[in-house]
């Protein structure tokens, strides 16, 4: 039976790879397959069950088996692509199976709560668990101050739009910064000021002036593993920023999305230096865990909670309780801590490889940031280079990078590309950077790349 069984598995996979069976196509019936492979219907049924488990086919009751997806094309694409663009976690360490157990357990545990409208602030039991978890990151707050949001993007969107206790109107952001924040501010029509950040930090005199004169409601800051630079502030700098915010009655929105990857165990969040509920701490679980869960938490000053929750309610009632329940179990049973160990090692190895390759191969007229950890590194290009053209040339060679222009307000605009190490395969980093360097040299020194037309891949 084993060989017939394996024969059926391989035959179906081959048919899909050769595109003889495409997404949505129906498989031959069990009877026909049994005849074709000269085996019992039972053997065919077992093979089909296995293919179902591998998510290659799915069953429609009383109809038959159908192909889920054409795996062939995506596998081929993954084989040749060098992906410095994608910013979700490395798919190879996404804890699908462990999490599947947690989802099943969550359904068993919380049957009634999971499939109805639930607490708008987030499941209390999860908030309790998160309050405990945040202590590892030096964030000490009672569960009552936590709100669960549908990703940190939702928290940033709500904070951009809602009134703050200081009655001020404008927002200050680092330049460059996370483009999703720029989008949220623009969508909400908020007047936005910028302050330049480099790997050496920022100008505190400028910061003080902006705080003093520009009616700043809050300062949005990414304190470590900065997106897109990879910059980290020192504890001293963080203390200074909090003190200035106190002095001028400015709130701080601290986006600590990659806190877990920080290799400096003494590094604190700004939140740790605020005695007066001045810092709003936003923690996503997308980058170190599963972006599709859409779960983040935000720690708010007591006086902002009801207004924030009201705004959240008007956006989506509540964050999916199924995701919340499963995350709670994942945190409780220690699987998350175990997962984090693997995550840290993988990304820090990839970042080291990227830094080494950039130092070895990029021409000297190109500046690049040198993050100690995190997902991102930014390359600043000389003014003679057409960034869209470079991205087009790379794209033609299956190398994908991000144009950093959308990470700047227009008045701060610079020629730069952002590289992400999160999904690139470590075996391809060096090759990718060698090719990137060759294209930069081609464009900048030889200036001989002729394309009749090219479009931007933003
Ligand atoms: C700095 C930063 N903050 C927040 C987010 C939003 O993450 P999510 O909404 O998935 O929690 C991202 C996503 O890329 C990000 O890079």
From TrEMBL:
This is Putative HTH-type transcriptional regulator yjiR. Keywords: Aminotransferase, DNA-binding, Pyridoxal phosphate, Transcription, Transcription regulation, Transferase. InterPro entries: Aminotransferase_I/II_large (IPR004839), HTH_trans_reg/aminotransferase (IPR051446), PyrdxlP-dep_Trfase (IPR015424), PyrdxlP-dep_Trfase_major (IPR015421), Tscrpt_reg_HTH_GntR (IPR000524), WH-like_DNA-bd_sf (IPR036388), WH_DNA-bd_sf (IPR036390). It holds the Pfam family GntR. One of its GO terms (molecular function) is transaminase activity. Residues 2-70 form the HTH gntR-type domain. Its cofactor is pyridoxal 5'-phosphate. In the C-terminal section; belongs to the class-I pyridoxal-phosphate-dependent aminotransferase family.
